[in-house]
Structures are given as structure tokens and as C-alpha cells.
Design brief:
Helix content: 25-40%
CATH architecture: 2-Layer Sandwich
Strand content: 25-35%
Shape: flat
Structural class: alpha+beta
Number of domains: 1
Distance between the termini: 43 Å
CATH class: Alpha Beta
CATH topology: Alpha-Beta Plaits
Strand order of the largest sheet: 2-5-1-6
Radius of gyration: 20 Å
Number of helices: 4
């Protein structure tokens, strides 16, 4: 199972301020630990929303809004993509992250292509019209 551990943005991340050196070093060690455990697939930080854009799809239109975006609590500052046996294991790894006081992480399971194909096949079977005799 793959899980995305989402790092919620903060005022500091939106201002492109790096965490203190000791937090940054602890994060590097944490990433190394997950890599050595064989679960880390990706780990990245994101530039502030001021360098981003949002695209809204409405009535056939694509409406582009450049950042920054007002609601910091709704933004993503970075992520880890891990492959583990369960949500509980992903949560346990997330709890070990060396985050600053007040930080928030969110753990979400990733839909794998095989899962989506299975769901589509099940939906297709549910909507099939039975053959007449």
C-alpha cells in the first residue's frame, strides 16, 4: 500500500523560510531512516503558493488563478510517499517525523492503477443489463 504523508503549509513555508538547521538535519536523518527501511519512494518540499497557480474547471472553461493563496491551512508544503503494509504503519512513521511545534501532517492512501481498474470493472458489472432469455 502506498501512502502520501502530506505536510501542511505554515506562515514560514509560505514565506520560503527554511526550518532551523537542527530541524533540517533531523529531517534529513528521518528521510535516511525511511530510505534504509525500504519504504521511502519520494520526499519533497514545495515552493510557496506565490509561485504556483490553481486551475478551476467550470462549464468547459479552465480558469487559472496565480498564487499566493490566502488559506495557509489548506495548502501543502511538502510530502513523503511511502510504501508500507497498512495505514497504521504509515501513521506510526508520520508520528516520528521531526516536525516543529504546531505542524500538521495528513496521511492519505494512494489509489494504485490496479485498484482503479478493479473498481471500474466492478462498476461496469453492476451496471450491465442482464441478457434476455
Amino acid at each position: 500500500m502506498q501512502f502520501l504523508i502530506i505536510v501542511k503549509a505554515s506562515r514560514e513555508s509560505e514565506a520560503a523560510r527554511l526550518p532551523p538547521r537542527e530541524v533540517h538535519e533531523a529531517m534529513r536523518r528521518y528521510n535516511d531512516e525511511m530510505d534504509e527501511a525500504g519504504i521511502l519512494m519520494a520526499a519533497e518540499g514545495l515552493h510557496p503558493s506565490s509561485k504556483g497557480a490553481r486551475i478551476r474547471f467550470q462549464g468547459g472553461e479552465r480558469i487559472v488563478t496565480d498564487g499566493p493563496f490566502a488559506e495557509t491551512k489548506e495548502l501543502v508544503a511538502g510530502f513523503w510517499l511511502v510504501e508500507v503494509a497498512s495505514k497504521e504503519e504509515a501513521v506510526e512513521w508520520a508520528k516520528r517525523a521531526p516536525m516543529e511545534d504546531g505542524a500538521e501532517l495528513e496521511v492519505r492512501q494512494v489509489y494504485l492503477a490496479a485498484e482503479v481498474e478493479k473498481m471500474l470493472a466492478e462498476r461496469s458489472r453492476e451496471t450491465e443489463v442482464p441478457a434476455r432469455k
